Amino acid sequence: MAGIMRERFVEVTTELLATHDRLALLTADLSAKLFAGARQEYPDRVLNLGIREQLLIGVAGGMALAGMRPIAHSFAPFLIERPFEQIKLDLNHQDVGAILVSAGASYDIAGGGRSHQSPGDVALLSTLPGWTVHVPGHADEAEAQLREAAAGDGLVYIRLSNQANERAHGLAGGGGHGFRVLRRGSAGTVVAVGPLADTVLAATGGLDVTVLYAGTVRPFDAATLRAVLADQDEARVVLVEPYLAGTSVPQVAAALSDRPHRVLGLGVGHEEVRHYGTPRQHAIAHGLGSAGLRLSIIEFLGTA
Known about the structure:
Strand content: 15-25%
Distance between the termini: 32 Å
Order of helices and strands: HEHEHEHHEHEHEEEHEEHEHEHH
Radius of gyration: 19 Å
Protein name: Transketolase
CATH topology of the largest domain: Rossmann fold
Largest sheet: 7 strands, mixed
């Protein structure tokens, strides 16, 4: 599945440029060659700014102020972490919309070292208001999210990954941003985010737990979470996120503030793994393999 989400992004964006006159695409060298045909067709709306990520966001803000709908694309650490001040000032503070589409996820480019890893991107962006944050688990979901974002006006972040589920869980039940019930149980609820859904389903096989799928984490679907926990005296929730562990714990706490609850946030650990390795080795090191997840979930819920 490696690279399929990014390939779909290139394909769909190129198509959307032909049908949305105010849509523009901005790159900072990464993936620029993949858009060579689109740049030749739409030279005023497909721009490669070179390795200047702060400028990438600044130009996106300027285009948005001029009435354009910009899509800015790079690897996650270069799209969110490096130009964060420009996101805060040139997009949020100016009260304009834009679409940020990243690749690389937390450690898809593990061989690139720490500079190419970004487990903190969603947590960082969550400090700003008004963002819709999509974490697609399948290329079909990424396409639907991109098409919706292109037709809108708001602030949208789409976090692409090389890891993917076998099917698009997020498109079941008519689309939308809400959580999806993948399995029902009574001992607790596990919220599986994006490309970790299949791993969570494998990890919880035979356990009496509800599994919810989240392809969109901001806004956080508090209503569905509350609904599946309605008949439980004490809500027990496990979050499994493919980025910094605990990123969405405050959203769970806010959703359940009026009732007793416990929450465990699983994800990429706060301690840096100082080895290159493969993405799978990084996932296992952070306890995000199916065996590691199962142990953590059983220990927290006290069930087997």
